[in-house]
Every structure is written in structure tokens, then in C-alpha cells.
Amino acid sequence: MTIKHLLLTSKIIGCLTITVVFFSCKKEKITTPQISPVTLGLYEYASGINKRIFLPVTQVGTKAVTYYTVFDTGSSGMTLDATDILPASMITSSGFQFTGDSVVVNGITVTSTKGTISFGDQLSSTKEYGNLAYANITIGDSQGNLALKRVPFFLYYKIVDETGAKLPAHASDVFGVGPGTSYVTSLIQSPLRNFNTGTNLTSGFKLATLNKSLFSTSGTYVTDLLTIGLNNSDLSSSGFIMHPLTYSNNGGYSPNIPATITYNGNTISGQILFDTGTPSTTVIEDHLATNAVGSLPANSTVTITTNKGFVYTYTTSSTGNLTEVQNPNNTGDYRTIFSLDFFISNEYLTDYGNHQIGLKNN
Predict the structure, then answer these.
(1) CA angle, corner 102, sides to 98 and 106, nearest 5?
(2) How many other C-beta atoms are found inside a 10 Å radius of the C-beta of residue 70?
(3) Could you give all domains of the chain from N- to C-terminal order, each with its CATH number?
(4) According to the 3-state scheme, what is the secondary structure of 205-233?
(5) Is there a contact between 159 and 72 (Cβ–Cβ < 8 Å)?
(6) pLDDT attached to residue 10
(7) Which class for 318: exposed (0-12), middle (13-18), buried (19 or more C-beta within 10 A)?
(8) Alpha-carbon distance 101 to 111, whole Å?
(9) In sequence order, what are the beta bridge partners of 281?
(10) How far apart are CA 80 and CA 65, in angstroms?
């Protein structure tokens, strides 16, 4: 499957007193292995105004594969099409065919827990139908990779667009790294949480600024974009402004950050999602907006200021930083969602261990 097709995881020695003379208690030194962060490259892909960053998945269970998953800060958990991973005889349009609570095939445990995941809003959404599954996975490829153990993920048997039309197999495989949990089950979270951080690292990742000039129709491999595992300097002295996250019983820790948004002389408050999974257009949700607002014209200026003082200003153009204004009463989504263009100018960090997101101008 090519990237182009993909646009649409003491031992203490006892002391023994042998005479009236006291001997010192000698302890065997315990050494805890120091874990180093793992840095991987991502593929930068563009088709017209749409941009994506892809993370390869090259092994699922015992199956060697090559699937380019959308690296997505806006969702939590990996979703993967079952086609060519499970036997075709197991996959039907109404679900997986097996008996019992679970089955193990090709090193993949497929459970009877079913669900549906939607991407988008009530105006336009893609729906995936599938089951909770577990497998060892390998992310990355020959240019750098990482094996993760027993990752819970969503294995889907069918994907349809807003019209109900079935999409091609693996048309929307997603590697969701958000801080929350899947709405299917709280067992599905970011696969990066399965990285062993030892005692010296904190669970999480940071994403370097993307290289605007390297986006291409063939997909350009860009080294050192993703760092998995955070050290103390990442969290204290690297210039990130940290934003504590809010917990909800439905979905876990939310990646939405309170902020004020200014555009065309209007200033509103809102919740902002910084979403690498949105390929081209930032959507400002303004409950006072009329249907006629629509797309902001080129050379419009937008400024956001978060509740922790992170400030970002950009100017729209005809080919980048595309922005439209919607009313949440129409879209059904109250979040202002920033597209992938945000990540060309800013660094991004998610700290799973302390439930916070870091933002940094670059």
C-alpha cells in the first residue's frame, strides 16, 4: 500500500552473624537500565492543499506488513483495516466471523468487543466498524523502527464515508496519539503509551516542526521528527509552555486547550484542538457566526492566546493556513480545530505521565 493511496501501539545479600565480631552487611548493587528516548522519522506527503504526515506500521502480530498510518494528535488509539491481516474468510460486511469471547490469528487477539469510530463532524464524517484487538506491533521502517508489546487497537472490517459508500481497504488507517482514550473502550489508548520508559523517562512524545519544503506527492521521509519518551529537560527547560489537561469519564484526558481566538476584529473564547489529522483547513467555531462567514479571505490575520500564555499568529493565503469560520450549532462540534499547518511553525509535546500538552513557537 503506497502513501498516495492513503490520503482519503533486589536482590540483597542477607547478613549472617557468625561470631561475636560484627561484620558489615554487604549489599549487591542493583542497576536499573537507563532507557533512552527513541527518535523516528515520518513521511511528509502533500496532494494539492492537503498535507499528511505518515508513520509506517511494518509488523502486526506475526504478519509483516507495510501500511502508512496517519499520525494523528486529534484521536487516541490505532485503527487498522483487517484486510490482508486476518484471513478473508473471517471478514464480512457485518463483522468478524469467530466463536467465543476472542480468537488468536496471526499473533493477533481479536475480541468480541465491538464498536464504531467516527472521524469528522455531523456535516461530514467517516465511520469505521470493528472490534478491540491486541497485538505486538512494529512502527517505523528500515530507516528507523520500534517494537511495541501487546498494543490494544481498533481492528475494523468496514469503513464508509458520509454518503454510506464503502472506502477501499486501508484507506484510513490512523495512528492516534492523543492523551485520552477511544470512545469504543478505555482500553484503547495511544500505542506510544506501550513504550517502556524505565525509571528515567516520562511517558509521552514530542513532535519537531515539520519542514514545509519537503512535503511531496511521493512522500518524503524526514528524519528525527518524532521523539518517543520524554526526559526532564523536555519538561522543564526546553521552552515548552505546558497546559494541564482536563479529565472526563467519557474519553479520558481531553487534548482541547482553552484559549481566546481573534479573527477579523472578533475575539471569542474557545477550546482548541491542535490536530495533525486535519490536512488543510483550520475551522474556527464561533457560536455568533452566521452561515455566510465561511472561508476567511487570503491575508486575514488570526491570533490565538491560550490560558497559559502561548501566543500564535498566522496569516491566511490561497495555498496555506486556510481557515473557515463555522457555527457549532451547524457542525455539532464546539472545538476550534487547527490543521497540520500549525505544526510547520510550532513544536508540540504530549506528556502522558503528567497529563499535559506543551506548545512552543519555532
Answers:
(1) 80
(2) 23
(3) 38-230 (2.40.70.10), 232-361 (2.40.70.10)
(4) EEECCCCHHHCECCCEEEEEEEEEEECHH
(5) no
(6) 33
(7) exposed
(8) 6
(9) 322
(10) 12
Q: Which three cell numbers stand for residue 49?
A: 492543499
Q: How many CB atoms lie within 10 A of CB 44?
A: 24
* More confident: 169 or 28: 169
Q: Residue 352: is its pLDDT beyond 90?
A: yes
Q: Provide the strand spans (E) within 196-310.
A: 202-207, 220-230, 241-244, 247-248, 252-253, 257-263, 266-274, 281-285, 294-295, 301-306
Q: Is 1 exposed, middle or buried (0-12, 13-18, 19+ CB in 10 A)?
A: middle
Phi, psi (deg, nearest 5) at residue 214: -100, -5
Strand 38-47 relative to strand 220-230: parallel, antiparallel, unpaired?
Answer: antiparallel
Indicate the burial class of 133 (C-beta count within 10 angstroms; 0-12, 13-18, 19 or more). Answer: buried
What pLDDT was estimated at residue 290? 79
Sorting pLDDT into bands at 50, 70 and 90, what band is 20? Answer: very low
**C-alpha cell, 195:** 513504550
Q: What is the pLDDT of residues 279-303, one digit of tens each?
A: 999 999 998 887 767 999 999 999 9
User: In sequence order, what E strands does 49-181 have?
Assistant: 50-60, 63-72, 76-81, 91-92, 95-96, 102-105, 108-121, 124-141, 144-160, 174-177
